[in-house]
Write a structure and sequence with these properties.
Pfam families: adh_short_C2 (PF13561). By secondary structure, the protein is an alpha/beta fold. The chain has helices at residues 11-20, 43-53, 76-95, 123-143, 158-163, 174-186; strands spanning 2-6, 25-30, 36-37, 56-61, 101-110, 147-153, 193-195. The two termini are 26 Å apart. The protein binds NADP nicotinamide-adenine-dinucleotide phosphate. NADP nicotinamide-adenine-dinucleotide phosphate binds at residues 6-13, 30-33, 38-41, 62-65, 85-86, 89, 110, 112-113, 154, 156-157, 160.
């Protein structure tokens, strides 16, 4: 299957590429350093990406950003950035996919644990992650005849915790998270928020 992987150069994208490549043709996308250039915060860029890539069997998105900062320092620009980037970027990835994803194909988006387990500084990120999950539940109802749509909530990734100087054993290895994305591509679920677990 042809799989378009957005955010392919990142921590999770690298592992997802590694796990999909033996059985699928992976087309990589991100703002820089991938086969296809895309900026999720720019809808025209998403349209152009689909035009360049042609038809695919699946789209996986592990790209996009949201602002992590204390509530009293989050400004209008921070909320606007977060909503336009990781939230509307992924929403537009689905909206613009019609006609570019094979019938019965799939789109898999990414949320995060802060949707349901917030922490100090996560207000904007929590909105975005919860919004992606709500969108997927609703959109799947209307897209059933066309494509499946799911979201993976990765939890804290072990390698990310390590890079932050925190206890990596509290997190889930990126390779285990990547297996959840592979399931979303290859199995038949739709409208689901899939959680990663240590194997
Ligand atoms: N790592 C964790 O512990 C963890 C936990 C929960 C949720 N998540 C979520 O999982 C996703 C991936 O995390 P990660 O740790 O793999 O992130 P990462 O290492 O920072 O990688 C992000 C990837 O997305 C691309 N990207 C960023 N902004 C983009 C944009 N506007 N348009 C297109 N591509 C863009 C980056 O490449 P360019 O910069 O070249 O565009 C890169 O390929 C994120 O949504 C993150 O919030 C991660």
């Amino acid at each position: 299957m042809r799989v378009l992987l957005v955010g392919a150069t990142g921590m999770l994208g690298t592992e997802i590429k590694r796990i999909l490549e033996p059985s699928h043709e992976v087309i990589t996308a991100s703002r820089k350093g991938s086969e296809v250039s895309v900026d999720l915060s720019d809808k025209a860029s998403i349209v152009a990406m689909y035009g360049t890539v042609g038809k695919v069997g699946a789209v996986v998105c592990v790209g996009g950003a949201a602002k992590f900062a204390p509530l009293d320092s989050l400004g209008d620009d921070d909320y606007a950035f977060s909503l336009a980037n990781k939230l509307m970027g992924q929403v537009n990835l689905v909206r613009c996919a019609i006609g570019h994803v094979d019938e019965g194909g799939s789109i898999t988006l990414t949320s995060g644990t802060l949707a349901h387990q917030p922490m100090v500084g996560s207000a904007a990120v929590s909105i975005v992650n919860a919004g992606v999950e709500g969108f997927v539940r609703a959109a799947a109802l209307e897209l059933q005849a066309k494509m499946r749509v799911n979201v993976v909530s990765p939890g804290w990734v072990a390698e990310t915790l390590a890079s932050m100087g925190k206890d990596a054993s509290e997190g889930i290895p990126a390779a285990d998270v990547a297996k959840v994305y592979k399931r979303a591509v290859e199995e038949t679920m739709t409208g689901q928020t899939l959680l990663a677990a240590k194997s």
